[in-house]
Amino acid sequence: MSRPVSGRPGSAPAGSTAARRAVRGPAAGGVAEAPRPTRSRVARQAAALGLVLCTVALLIAFPLRTYLAQRDQLRSEQAEEQALRDQLADLQGQAAALQDPDYIKAEARARLQYVMPGDTVYVVQAPEPTVAGSPGTAVVEESSPWYSDLYDTLSTPTG
Fold it and tell me: Bias regions of kind Low complexity — which residues (predicted)?
């Protein structure tokens, strides 16, 4: 059969030898035990508070990190959405311009060099490139690499 245990931490059960010696004193049982140093109540409360704060910090840290990452991702997605909306507006403007026959005619003339019936076409031809050594062109002598030019200047005595 078990005996009731005292509710205070660090105390011996009521029926134990140490409890009986404490009640009787040193004269009754022989050698007196040195009293154990006990923590103060404030130190226990500070330790418990520290433990609670650490637990709360750990419980909040991971969801908070996830929340902040998701918030940053949401901002970047919103910026990308805005950029896509701007691009859509530009493309819709281009599509509207392509519905205009005058715009299409202007683009065909500019890009494809199309002309309307009755227009006079002038073709400008560039002159033929000249061949080296023919009259009217300067003769370009082939130069050697820079390091051979440097060697030649160093090896030839100047006098």
Answer: 18-37
DSSP annotation of 100 reads -
Burial label for 102, CB within 10 Å (0-12, 13-18, 19+), is exposed
Model pTM?
Answer: 0.40
Q: Which residues contact 117 (CB under 8 A, 6 or more apart)?
A: none
Cα(29)–Cα(13) distance, rounded to whole angstroms? 18
pLDDT digits (tens, 9 = 90+) for 12-21: 555 555 555 5
Neighbours of 2 (CB within 10 A): 6
Could you say which DSSP state residue 7 is in? S
Angle at CA of residue 25, ends 19 and 28, nearest 5°? 100
Cα(87)–Cα(89) distance, integer angstroms: 5
